[in-house]
Amino acid sequence: MVSVIIPVYNARKYIRETMETVLAQTYGDWELLLVEDHSTDGTGEYLEEYIETLSDERIRLIRLPANGGAANARNQGLAQAKGRYIAYLDSDDLWEKNKLEEELHFMHAKQAAFVFTGYEFADESGKGLGKIVRVPASLKYKQALKNTTIFTSTVLFDTELIPKELLQMPNVKSEDTALWWKILKNGYTAYGLDQNLVRYRRVGKTLSSNKFKAIRRIWNLYRNVEGLGVFTSAWNFCFWAVRAVLRRV
């Protein structure tokens, strides 16, 4: 079974459409854990009502007593996940209907613990913009420092090959990238399925859309999380910056 974990905070506008892309999956052995991170826009109440209309026992709503951020929400979901496989999906992103089926087949073929896929940028309505991010066949730790194309809503982990403890997200900015690096630093390889199976909705005021904040976050990861020297950090940062620009052109 795949445990799909969605951290939810003030996502009432998009969450139903995101959930529908999970419900539409051609692979049906999944559970959906919606970790409601103490929203202030009525998302929690909306989800309670919507889930009741679905009457689908595969869907669980976990309401947190206080807002703790995306990393904490994912970790709370991970702690309650029952599936062998763990998939993350952000509350405004969209999966193609064959995402899980194709990715699981790829994972088994590679006998991999950690896989990810390509994705497409989408506008605020969720419509694909035709800008597809291609992914490398594989990434090891040192390669990943220069290439942060692994996108959260595309990843899949096998907990029979990688311990759940290692999947705990660090409580830092850009917690997802920090997690990928932590896993790879422990000797794992991430394998990339170069198929467009996810739409990344670019909402105007999201943290990810702020380039200056992104620069500060990635530099902090190099220097303070990974403990890299200034020269090594700058060297890797140059490669990251070029790839980040190319992904968005």
Would you summarize the structure shown here?
By secondary structure, the protein is of the alpha/beta class. The chain has eight helices and ten strands.
Distance between the termini: 37 Å
* Helical content class: 25-40%
Summarize model confidence as the mean pLDDT: 93
Beta-strand share of residues? 15-25%
What form results from the Cα inertia axes? globular
C-alpha-based Rg, rounded: 17 Å
Question: How many extended strands?
Answer: 10
Order of helices and strands: EHEHEHEEHEEEHEHEHH
Most strands sheet: 10 strands, mixed
How many distinct helices? 8
Point out poorly predicted stretches: none
| Class inferred from helices and paired strands | alpha/beta
Fold and architecture overview:
With about 250 residues, this protein is of the alpha/beta class. About 40% of the residues lie in helices and about 25% in strands. The chain has eight helices and ten strands. Strands 1, 2, 3, 4, 5, 6, 7, 8, 9 and 10 form a ten-stranded mixed sheet that branches. The chain is globular, with a radius of gyration of 17 Å. The N and C termini lie far apart (about 35 Å). The relative contact order is 0.15. The model has no long low-confidence stretch (mean pLDDT about 95).
